[in-house]
Every structure is written in C-alpha cells, then in structure tokens.
Design a protein that fits this description.
Layout (H helix, E strand, L loop, with lengths): L16 H25 L2 E8 L5 H9 L7 E4 L15 H4 L7 E6 L8 H5 L4 H20 L3 E8 L2 H13 L9 H8 L1 H15 L6 E5 L3 H15 L38
Parallel strand pairs: 1-3, 1-4, 2-3, 4-5
C-alpha cells in the first residue's frame, strides 16, 4: 500500500519543517540571482524590519542572508546611541550605514525606534516623537528620489504566540540571552505598543514608501512570504553574474606542502 503524502500543516496549523526548507531553498536560489543583479546594475536597496518583540525579525533576516554574500547583503543592528550620537541629528547615525552601489542594507530595527520603543518608554519627548512622525515621510521621499529602493516590513505577532515565545526563552538556556528587561516591559505594555504602532502606520504609510505587514505567528510562513515579497519588489534577471571557470592549477615551484605542517600543532581530533 502506497504511503500517503505528509500533511503540509502540523496539528497547530503551522507549516511543517520539511516543506518549509524545500520552499526556502528555492527562494534562496532566487536571492542569489537577485544579488548578482544588484551588483551588476549598481542598485542601492534598504530593507528595514520593525515589529513587536519576539515577532521573528532576527530569524527572518537570517533566512534572507544565510546563503548570500555579507558584502552585498549588509545587516545593521545599531545599539543604543552613544553620548555623542545623542547630540547628532536623529537619523544621522542610520544614514551613515546607507548602501553604496551594489549593496542591500537590512536594518534590524531602524529610525522607527523613535515612533516605537522610544515613544512608549519615554526615551524621547512627545514633541520629539511628533516631529519625527511629521518629517519622516519627507526624509523617506528624499531617500527614494535619490534612487534608493526602500522596503519597509512590520512583523506582527499575536498576544498568545508572543507569550509562548517568551516562555520558551525563559525555559531554554540557549535562548535566554534573547530575553531582555525591555522585552518584559514590552510584554507588559502590549496595548501601549499597539497604539504606538497604529500612530506610526497612520503617519508614515505612504504610497511612495508603504508599510508591508507580515503575520508572523507562523514563523516559517512569515519568512517565506517576506522573501517572496522582496523578490517581487526588486525586478531582476537571472544569469546576470559573470561566468566562472576554474583555472588550471599551476605546478610551478611544486613541493610537498603537507610535510612542512607535520611539526606544527594541530587541534585534537575528538570527532
């Protein structure tokens, strides 16, 4: 009797790993084609990720970047501003990391910190937040008019799934480092962050720089949907990279290059 095909969904409705990995590999191949196209055409691309804590931003960025060159796909995750940076124009430290020709810069959180965590936690004054929301579309219009492709993603996770992920971090020593005091405070202030999100989207969701919202309760589906959207938003052609041929290895000045290593110290082979 023939085996029936495995279900695409688990009992909780989430995508199974085997199907996810199969689809992810296909999309990562396309990302490599996209990478060649961006380099060949000298494109400049910014992809920024915002969302609730534990929404899956890090895992999504890893899925995008794990098979491409870090010299083309650069990930920027800025720490809290230094005393000097606090005296600069607010967006200045972000603009320093903007792409040059042939680069895609991925912001793991961005200048939208001002509309989110800084607003909710009181790190910025209401006047600062209001001013940011007023001028942000103008700044993004300037970025786009300069020829930069700007893509903005908001990852939205539900209350129950966020709680499950936080509890998993608490009980897993390999994931406890992911849980910060700020995460716990964001969990407590769920509705404050919801209001900050709504205000941000209302002020900065424009036709020339729209927000694209991804449901991320199912991380695997969210990642695949995100990569698919990126590939749709940046038109590219396959085979734009140079044809590579392995050259013949020269035997000039040939010698036993392994014998010279025998007197060196090697790491013990325990595996």
């Amino acid at each position: 009797m023939a085996k029936s095909a495995p279900a695409e969904k688990k009992s909780d409705g989430k995508m199974r790993r085997k199907l996810y990995e199969k689809e992810l590999r296909k999309l990562q191949v396309e990302l490599c084609y996209l990478q060649d196209w961006v380099k060949a055409k000298g494109l400049r691309v910014i992809i920024l990720f915002e969302g609730r804590d534990a929404a899956g931003k890090g895992g999504t960025i890893k899925a995008i970047t794990e098979r491409v060159s870090p010299r083309v796909f650069r990930v920027v995750a800025l720490p809290a501003p230094s005393d000097r940076e606090k005296t600069q124009m607010y967006v200045q430290r972000y603009m320093e990391r903007f792409p040059a020709a042939g680069e895609i810069v991925i912001f793991d959180r961005s200048w939208y910190n001002r509309a989110g965590v800084e607003s909710v936690m009181g790190f910025a004054t209401p006047k600062d937040v209001e001013r940011f929301l007023e001028i942000c579309p103008e700044i993004e219009k300037f970025i786009i008019d300069a020829g930069v492709i700007l893509i903005k993603f908001w990852l939205e996770v539900g209350k129950r799934e966020q709680e499950r992920r936080f509890l998993a971090r608490i009980s897993d020593p390999l994931r406890q480092w992911k849980l910060s005091p700020m995460d716990l405070e964001s969990y407590r202030r769920w509705y404050d962050f919801s209001r900050a999100r709504d205000r941000m989207l209302e002020a900065t969701d424009r036709d020339f720089a729209p927000w694209r919202i991804i449901r991320s309760d199912d991380k695997r589906r969210g990642r695949l949907n995100c990569i698919t959207q990126i590939l749709q938003l940046i038109p590219y052609e396959k085979g734009s990279g140079p044809k590579v041929k392995l050259p013949k290895r020269s035997s000039k000045r040939k010698y036993d290059d392994q014998a010279t290593l025998q007197r060196r110290s090697f790491v013990s082979e325990k595996f």
